[in-house]
From TrEMBL:
<dbReference type="InterPro" id="IPR000184">
    <property type="entry name" value="Bac_surfAg_D15"/>
</dbReference>
<keyword id="KW-1134">Transmembrane beta strand</keyword>
<dbReference type="GO" id="GO:0019867">
    <property type="term" value="C:outer membrane"/>
</dbReference>
<dbReference type="InterPro" id="IPR034746">
    <property type="entry name" value="POTRA"/>
</dbReference>
<dbReference type="InterPro" id="IPR039910">
    <property type="entry name" value="D15-like"/>
</dbReference>
<feature type="domain" description="POTRA">
    <location>
        <begin position="188"/>
        <end position="262"/>
    </location>
</feature>
<dbReference type="InterPro" id="IPR010827">
    <property type="entry name" value="BamA/TamA_POTRA"/>
</dbReference>
<dbReference type="Pfam" id="PF01103">
    <property type="entry name" value="Omp85"/>
</dbReference>
<dbReference type="Pfam" id="PF07244">
    <property type="entry name" value="POTRA"/>
</dbReference>
<protein>
    <recommendedName>
        <fullName>POTRA domain-containing protein</fullName>
    </recommendedName>
</protein>
<keyword id="KW-0812">Transmembrane</keyword>
<keyword id="KW-0472">Membrane</keyword>
Length: 585
């Protein structure tokens, strides 16, 4: 088979012939993919020296590719204007090149006559291709050795390595004999941790956050956990962990931890636009290491409803300080407080909140959170003024294995929450809010350009009468977080003040679905359908919306533009436009 392509540079043009006599078309494509001469055929500014360098490199690249495919008798010839490239001195490259010819005779396919490796740890999952009679691909041999040593390391043998290998090709029989001997070495324990690079974070706190398991049996996953703990603090731009090359006399292994700290402070701004609710602006100021112990202090502010068609302007300010590695390396403590004012269609609310909580990171997917809070709010509506005072204990578990939080294409997100609240006066009831948030994502095709996404939200308030329940625990439907195409919080229930006053419900079901299509590398389209149901006080209602959207991918997540229309319900008021960063869910 012969492929003829034209390569050109500003100074000359030449032909490249790539011949693979007797090879299957699939092998020919793989060999061409490994060739620098083929890869650089359209590159500009190449001279004779560049062509010779690529040709000399191609000998090894093509032979390695033949080995990887199971061919060990191959013959490779690369000629530049009739001269074998291997015979041309590197400093005597031709000034011009007219023709390059690559000829590859792969020879026969080899199979394993013998494929042994040992000793291996119990449960080692060796590749199926490493067995007598299978095609003798070099990559399979490498994979078998890697899996054997990795399993020994997982079992505590940190210095497991390949001790010897005997690989012999029989060119008469077209077979390959492979024998690999593994040296597991002793069971190793973690030794000392040496640290460097921390400038503002105290070394004692660095060690507490890292949670290095000195004295425990070696496990590479433990080192991954150390790195993850340090990275999630947000203090460091780089975390590097290096194992000592040799063991200590007691078979312990010392480890070096080198970190690079980020700038102490950071500010951020955000904006969202909705055709009904108006413009929402948000900002934050962050200090990553407030007292030198890794304390993360953040102040958030927000203003929404600017130029909106419903309600008035809402604003809020809140502060939170987190302390990592409290009680143990995987538990963070925090204190939070917030002030807010809401000017809604049906009521005004001023609120204050302060609380203390703990976050437990069970693993890289599962986290738990519990806190105790005091809340005060004053609600003013057509029935008058109501003061709510409460102590509440929000508790939630979150499972998140999405591949990308801003633009997921596969995985699941599940969050379950329960918030018991205890009234401190006659106007505030005692009960609990129950919530659930389930999301699923499925991509299709190798490029993952088509994604189906779904979300189910559930909510319920139990134990307290509706009129005695603080407004933040009640449920509404409508808007970007529930039903696009319907005005924000447009669906509630009218059961207060003789059925004339609208409020949130005590039961909620929300369904959101999307089909996401990648049009180009950075531009995508979305079709969506959302549904919401709210009930409470003997009244219920539902609404639905649907629409189309556009996504433009950026380094911080896709910029989102959605246009939704009401499909069912009596709360719709024409098209709704939503602009934000990140997918809708």
């Amino acid at each position: 088979m012969t492929a003829l392509v034209s390569l050109s540079s500003p100074s000359f043009a030449y032909d490249l012939k790539f011949r693979t006599p007797g090879a299957e078309s699939g092998l020919k494509s793989v060999l061409e993919g490994a060739s620098l001469l083929v890869q650089n055929k359209d590159a500009e500014g190449k001279d004779g020296q560049d062509v010779l360098a690529a040709a000399r490199a191609d000998y090894n690249r093509i032979v390695s590719t033949l080995f990887a495919q199971g061919y060990y008798s191959g013959v490779v010839s690369i000629k530049i204007d009739g001269r074998e490239a291997a015979n041309i001195p590197p400093l005597d490259a031709p000034a011009s090149v007219t023709q390059v010819t690559v000829s590859v005779n792969p020879g026969p396919l080899f199979h394993f006559s013998r494929a042994e490796i040992g000793p291996v740890a119990p449960g080692t999952d060796l590749p199926e291709g490493y067995a007598p009679g299978q095609v003798a691909q070099s990559g399979v041999i490498i994979d078998a050795a890697s899996k054997a040593t990795t399993k020994w390391r997982d079992e505590g043998h940190a210095k497991a390595q390949v001790a010897a290998q005997d690989i012999v090709a029989n060119h008469r029989a077209n077979t390959l004999s492979s024998e690999i001997r593994i040296a597991p070495g002793p069971v190793v324990t973690f030794g000392k941790l040496e640290t460097s690079g921390n400038q503002r974070l105290r070394t004692k706190r660095l060690r507490e956050i890292a949670g290095f398991p000195t004295g425990e049996v070696y496990d590479p996953k433990k080192l991954d956990e150390v790195q993850s703990r340090l990275q999630r603090t947000g203090i460091f731009s780089s975390v590097a962990i290096t194992e000592a090359k040799t063991l200590n006399p007691d078979d312990s292994l010392d480890v070096t931890l080198a970190v690079v700290e980020q700038k102490k402070r950071k500010i951020g701004l955000g904006a969202e636009l909705n055709s009904t609710d108006g413009l929402g602006l948000s900002g934050y100021w962050l200090h990553r290491n407030l007292f030198g112990g890794g304390e993360r202090f953040r102040i958030d502010t927000g203003v929404s409803g600017i130029g909106g068609a419903t309600g008035g302007i809402d604003y809020s300010i809140g502060a939170r300080i987190d302390r990592p590695a409290t009680f143990n390396p995987d538990t963070n403590a925090y204190v939070t407080t917030a002030l807010s004012h809401k000017n809604e269609d049906d009521y005004d609310e001023d609120a204050f909140d302060i609380g203390f909580g703990l976050t437990r990171i069970f693993n890289d997917k599962l986290t738990g959170d519990i806190s105790i809070n005091y809340g005060w709010s004053k609600v003013t509506d057509t029935s008058g003024e109501t003061i709510f005072r409460e102590v509440y204990l929000p508790t939630k578990l979150t499972w998140d294995d999405r591949d990308n939080k801003m633009d997921p294409t596969k995985g699941f997100y599940v969050q379950a929450g329960v918030t018991p609240f205890f009234g401190l006066d006659q106007t505030t009831g005692t009960g609990a809010q129950l919530t659930g948030d389930l999301r699923a994502y499925k991509s299709f095709g190798e490029s993952k350009r088509f994604v189906l996404a779904g979300r189910l939200q559930l909510g319920s308030v139990v134990g307290a009468d509706l009129e005695e329940t603080p407004r933040d625990y009640l449920f509404y439907s409508g808007g970007g977080g529930t039903v696009r195409g319907q005005p924000y919080q447009s669906l509630g229930v009218k059961v207060l003040d003789g059925g004339t006053l609208a409020t949130g419900g005590t039961e909620f079901v929300g369904v959101q679905s999307e089909a996401r299509f990648g049009i180009t590398k950075n531009i995508g389209a979305v079709a969506f359908y959302d549904y919401g149901y709210v009930s409470g006080g003997g009244e219920s209602g539902s609404q639905a919306g649907a629409g189309l959207g556009v996504r433009y991918k950026t380094g911080i997540g896709p910029i989102r533009l959605d246009v939704g229309f009401p499909v069912s319900g009596d709360t719709g008021s024409g098209a709704q436009i939503y602009i934000g960063i990140g997918q809708a869910f």
